[in-house]
Structures are given as C-alpha cells and as structure tokens.
C-alpha cells in the first residue's frame, strides 16, 4: 500500500472518529480506504474496490435501499413531495427545529432526499432571516415587461 497524507476539516475527522468508536469501522484508516473505494466504484464503471471485506462493510454501513437504483419505492420513508410540502408548512410557520426533527426521524443520514430537504430548509431559514420573500406584486412588473 501507498501512504498518503490528506488534510480534513476537524468536524469531518470528529465524525469519522465517532463512527470508529461506535464500531461502524475498525479504524479511521478502514473508513478512509472504504470511502475512497466506495466513491470510485460509484464513479468509474470498471473500478473494483480493493478494501478487504468491502462488500461486508458496504452491507453494514449503507442501507440496501441506498445501494439499489430505484430503492426508494420500498423505503420506509414518506413520499418525497409530501415531505417537501410538510417541511414547507413547518418552515413557513417558523418551526425549524420541528422540520429538522422530521427529516432526522423520517430519513437515514446521507439519504439523497434528506440532503435535499436540509438544503430546502436552509433556504427557508435564510429567507426568514432576511425578513421574508418579495410579495407577488413586486414580481409582476418583471413578468409584464417580458410579455410586452
């Protein structure tokens, strides 16, 4: 094996250390090897992971629904657009912590839908911090000037 030095932000390393402490990975090195192999296997069609027990680690740390294309249909999570509507309702009422709890309890960490919902929630937070969105009347002049 080749030794390589990589610098990571401190919060990333802390999360990796937590996974090791919880027994998800035997060591930080195993995490780094697995994560590099995982990304390469998803990015390059011909790539074969070299990590020892790669398949066993993948089965343990990544839920089956996330590994299969179309796995969302049988997932134990609500339909995505219903989640967006519910998140919107909570965010418009200023219930950001309830919206976070909803995401945390309905989706597994790293789920692509959870990531999108977190991003949407962040947009609502920013909007609330800046005093809300522009009224439809303010948007109308632009729309009519394009139509003329």
TrEMBL record:
Top-level division of the source organism's lineage: Archaea
Chain segments carrying region Disordered: 127-148
Protein name: Uncharacterized protein
Organism: Halorubrum ejinorense
């Amino acid at each position: 094996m080749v030794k390589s030095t990589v610098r990571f932000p401190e919060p990333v390393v802390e999360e990796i250390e937590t996974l090791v402490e919880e027994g998800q990975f035997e060591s930080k090195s195993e995490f780094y090897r697995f994560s590099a192999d995982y990304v390469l296997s998803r990015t390059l069609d011909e790539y074969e992971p070299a990590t020892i027990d790669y398949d066993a680690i993948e089965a343990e740390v990544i839920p089956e629904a996330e590994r299969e294309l179309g796995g969302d249909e049988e997932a134990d999570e609500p339909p995505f657009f219903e989640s967006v509507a519910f998140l919107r309702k909570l965010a418009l009422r200023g219930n950001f912590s309830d919206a976070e709890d909803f995401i945390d309890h309905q989706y597994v960490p790293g789920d692509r839908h959870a990531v999108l919902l977190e991003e949407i929630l962040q947009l609502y937070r920013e909007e609330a911090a800046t005093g809300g969105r522009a009224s439809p009347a303010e948007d109308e002049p632009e729309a009519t000037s394009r139509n003329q």
